[in-house]
Amino acid sequence: MKKLYIGFTILLILSIGAGIYYFTGYRQSQMEFPNEVTMESTTGTDYSFKEIPQKIRLLEFMYTNCPDVCPNTTYQMVDIRDRLVKDGLFGDKVEFLTVTIDPARDTLPIMKEYGETFKTTAADGWYVLRGDAEDTRKLADAFRFQYKDPGSGFLIHRNATYLINEKNRVIEVFGMGEKDFDREEVYKKIVKNAEKM
Questions:
Q1: Does residue 49 register a pLDDT over 80?
Q2: pTM here?
Q3: 34-196, what's its fold?
């Protein structure tokens, strides 16, 4: 009876471990850029996810009318970018992507203004992107980033940013905003992965 109890306990522990791995590591590692999606950068050039160079990427979904977590996350990303520039990693090994989930309202001029506000520069390695509604949904769905427009101009969305390795697979999911986006943790994880390249 005791052996049966021990065997059941071990089986239970293994099952729980497998479940945790599936819902965190495995499902997360299955997220990747959809090859068929192309977006427009604020420079007016296309950004295709089909053939992108091997880099560590931090992906942020946002919309410019967001009153809190989106601009706060972008602001914190500026600090991380500045530190990575000093480390000699930004642009060469690390790239940031800021993608609007509200392309109907976030026109190219509005996205350009947003990028200028936060001093993002595509030439340095920070791309502010918008696509049509279909491509935006495809990209968001690939990362299980849920969002909804209730018609008020204020979108309901998941609070998540994604750290993506040089093989274009998600290796970490962070929160957004002042409380859930720990810039020190994000910075350290980026450096750790960039230095492995």
A1: yes
A2: 0.84
A3: Glutaredoxin (3.40.30)
